[in-house]
Each structure stands twice: as structure tokens, then as C-alpha cells.
Amino acid sequence: MISTAIRVARVGSAAQLAAAALMILGFPALMLAALVPSVPAFAAAAAVTYLADHYLHRKGSYLINRLSKVRAGLSIRFLIRQLLLVLLLARLSLSDGLIFYGAIACFIASYGLQAPHGALVQLIRNRRRMPVATRNVDLASRVRIPDAPPRRLLYRSAEKMLHLDLAAVTGLLISGLTDSAVAGFIGIGVTLVLGTVYVGALVPYVRGSKIPPNAERVLAAVDDWLGTYKPETVLYFSGSKDSAYQVNMWLETMEQLDTRPLIILRERAILNNMAPTTVPVICVPGGVHLMNMDLSTVRVALYAANVGKNIHLLRVPTMKHVFIGHGDSDKLASVNPYSKVYDEVWTAGRAGRDRYAIADVGVRDDDIVEVGRPQLAPIQTWQGVPEGRIATVLYAPTWEGWDDNPGNTSILLAGENIVRDLVNAEPPVRVLYKPHPFTGTRSAEAKAAHLRITALVEKAAAARAADPAFGADAAAQTQAKADLTRVEARIAELSGSAEKGDEAEATRDGLVDAAKHAEVARLRAEWNDAYWRSFPVWEHRVITGAEPRLYDCFNVSDAMVSDISSVVSDFIASGKPYAVTDSAELGVEEFKRQNTAVRAAVILSNSAAELGGLLDAVRDPSADPLGVDRQELKQYLLGPDEPTSIVQFNTAVQQLAQKAETRNLGQDTGAVDAEAATSAAVADDATAAEADVITG
Question: Which residue from 169, 480, 484, 601 puts its CA 20 to 30 A from 65's CA?
């Protein structure tokens, strides 16, 4: 029942549900206390509504956002509470007293102060939102960007301004209880003085040197930096904040390019969710600003996703455009007809080329280049289950997709069967459940299935922890947890996780220290090692969030169960046994025919009855019937091991840049020839005209 109420109320937990109930019931209680009248009851109900409201705001409750849509927003709730306080004072026979009129005047004045307060806050935010946001771009030496206002002035400013009425409300309640107006007038004075001071504190940030430069000056500074830096290869990306992983997977590759790299983003949310990098980054939300930007030195543009905003850069003819995607799989998205707009499409191996040929979506074979997968370098090859450790199986299903195709994910029809069989396997195995970050974002059924699977894993983990057959080295785990705390503290220190300024200030100060960046990379590897040591090697685990990364999960696993997605293609790089679920029930032969990546996999039905074959291959690699097939498939999907993927990638960039240079030179030469021809024609016409005059 509680879970149903949480789902209906759109709150995140039982605590939020309780707070929402208390807040909603608190207002009728306030009215009842005012009518009785009872000052203690009113004070108690007011305290409940204040605290519950604040808690729900701090948690970012969806319910709070929806209340504003039905005319019950934050300001209305404060106003109702204040009106009920005025009613209480009237019921206490204070309506003829000066304190009664003082209370009314105070609340009117406080709302009067909110208008300039809100206007100033919005004006400051608008003026400090620059047309571009950058990282690793030196704008500070080109334009003056002032410090951001203190965070305490702007963060949840409306809520803070409204809460200044606490002094007046407290004082008025004391006056109602003691029949003395002194406390009420003191509270009124404190509320009005604090409100005036708050408004006054904002005024300096809309005047003079506190104002950032205008858009024209900022864009001119960006162009000046571009003219100095002269980028050659651009990674272009647009998407939702949840798709930041698609650009993050290419950051290390961009850092290893032999040409000067630049990353162009179109959404601020992506910039805020992007991992640290040493590559210069420019976020340009405005299409006109991007199209007017000086990118004349760029010769290769790389695209990680097929989105509408790509057109703003695709229109530039002086650079060659390449679709590199964000994973290589047999999904329909990997052969999107949109890809024909690019000059080239880069795939990991021969499989990608064949995939386009079979799909026949207009991408020519001559325009496909095999470059391997540079991101797969961290994936370790399998040497068998380590001595003294039980086998680990990773369940990494993909999400439900944009339609209801049952073949999109195994979560709905097979997920619970897979996890149930794995946690009950004999001999025992450890289960790591790492769902796709989009799981449940579109489908309520998928979200519910995910929660049930999570509950299965956690229940099995608790049962195993209580089983005396599974021992743990408590001292080693304690040390590992201490290492985690130490590493996290150092990473936070290096990353500057203390209070930060706004976007403009981040742009000004966004130059990455290369030494710190390298240390953070080393510390993240140390964190990963400590994380896996911080709990027993037999403990089932649900893994969500950015850390540990998917490839880290690959390296500690001995086998994987997944769906048709790039996860399967990437896992094949490890050479480990894997299983893929035929959720659409196509049948083994048809499933393998349609999906290249599963040709060396154990194919699971929705009942997961075939899991035994996967576990047998893990326990006895010498008897694995698919071992040779996996090695052959690895080369077909991901290309040869030598030269390395990053070498292949750099070579492809250089060759395409040369094509762009040749094209541009041809255009320049053609323009010169055309101009010369035009001049000659004009001269001939002039000569002919002169001859006509003489003849005449």
C-alpha cells in the first residue's frame, strides 16, 4: 500500500510521502487552530508545515513541483499560513489592536519586497548567463568576467525570501500567547529589516564592474581564442543530460589525438555532466552563434549521435563530417539512415561495414572506415576464474528503448528469471547487476521490473551474508573502506568540490591543471581497486551510477548476460563467455542470423533455462564449445589487435583531414580560375566594344 501511495503521489521515498501528508494535513490543522483559537496548536501545526515543506524542497520532490501547477505553489502556501495567522489574531480579540494592523502591514510589505527581489535575482542570472560556456579555453585574458554573487544569495532565493516571515510569525504567536505586543513588533521589524537587507545585497550585482561582458564581446573573445588555438578535429555532441555518457566515452580518445582537438556541446546540461578532460570544450546553445563561430581551421568533425542539431555544423563545407557513434551493436540505431549525411561512417570492424550493406540505408561501402574501438583498451582478457574465488556473472541489460519492442530489453520478460537462477546456482556464483542508466525512464513496467530485480539481488546478498559458509576478511574490508574514504577525499580536494561559482565563473576558471588531472586519473584507478576490496568477493551487488564503470565490471566478471546492445560487442573484447537473451523469441538460428554479436553467445530464452551452458563454460574453460568462435568473432566485430585502435583512429583522422584540405584547395583554385575567366571575359567585351566604336 505504501509503495502504491508513493507511486501515486510521485514522491521518492516513504519519508517524503510522510512529509507530504504532514504538509497537506497541516493547513486544515492551522485553520482549525485559528478558529478554536489555540496558539500552541497553531504554532505546532505551523512548525510542521514549515519543516515538511522545507524537507520536500530540499529533496526536490516531484509533488512540490506539481503543486505550483494547481495554484498551490510555495508563495500561495506561505500566504495561506499568514492569512490564517491574521484570522487567529482576530479570534483572539486582537483585531482592534495595533499589533493586528502591524501584522497585516508586515505581510503586505514582505510581499512587496518580493517583487524587486525576484526581479533582481532573475536579472543577475540572465546577465551572468553568457552565450557560450567553456572549459580549458583561456577567456580570462581576453574579457573580464567578474566573480559570481555568493551562492547563499541566489541558491533557492525565493524560498529564503519567503522564510524571512518566520521572525514575524514567531513574534506574533508570542504576542497572542502573552497579550503583549512587544514580541510581535520585534518580529515584524526583524522580518522587514532582513527583507530590505536581502534586496539591498543584490543591487551591486546588477551594476558596474559586477556585470559580465555582453554576448558580442564574449563571442569575439571565443573567436580570438579559436584563431590562436587553431583546432583541427572537433567532437560535436547534442543530447539530454542523461546522454552525457555518450560523449564521455570519447574523451580519452580525443586526448590522444595527434591533431589539435576541440569538443563542441550544444546543451549546458551536458557540460555540467561531462567528465573532466584536458581537451578544450565550448558549449554553444545558440545555433546562430555556432554558425557564426570561426571554425575555419577545423578539417574533421566527429559526431557521436544522430540528432537534429547536427545540421548546424554539417552545413560547413570546409570540414569532413564523420559519424563515430557511441557504441557498435546490431541495434537498428547502428544503421540509422541519417548516417548517409556524413562524409564517412567509422565502425569498429568488418561487422559494421557488413551491417550497413545488409541494411541498405544509403551509406556507401567506400564511405565506411574500420578504426577499431579505442575505448576498449582498458578491458582485460580472461585468464579463467582466479584461484580461491567463486565465479562472478555480470547481468547488464539494456533499457526499454523508445518503443515497446519486446526484443529491446530482457528486463521485462526474462530479467527476474535470469537473476533468480543465478543467485540460486550450484556451485554458487556472485551476481553483479548493472542496468542501463536509462532503464525505467520511459516505461513504468520496466522501472517496476528493475525494482523487483534489485530486490531479488539485495535479498540474496543478505541471505548469503548470514550464511556461515561464506566468510569475510573484516580487517581487509575495513582497510579498503578507509582507502575509499581517503581517495574520495583527495579526489574531492583536487576536483574542487567545495562551493563553486556559477557558469560564467566556471568558464573563466575552467582551465584544467594537467598534473591534477593525471593524479585524479591515478586516484580513480586506486578507488576502483579499493571498491572491489571493500566487500566480500562472493557478495551479490547492484551497481548503478557512474562508478564503478561498466568496463571495471567487465574486468572483475567471468561471464556476462546482456541484450542486443554495444555492451555485448564491447564485452567480446575480453574473450569471456557471454549469454544474450532472445526476448522477442525469434528462435536461436534466426536470432543469430539477425544479430552478429550473438554468434558466439549462449542464447537464452525468456525462461533463462539455458543459463547452465554459460556457467559450465565459466567453470571449465577447456570444455567451452564457443571459445574459438569468440576469438574469431572478436576480430570480425572489433578489428585486429594490431595496429592498436588509437593508431587506426589517428590514421583515419589524418587521412580524412587531407581529403578536406584537398577539397578546400580545389575550391580555392577553382574560385581563382573563375575570377580570372570572368576578368578575361570582361576584358574581351571591353575590347570588342572599343572596336565597335572605332568601326562605327
Answer: 169
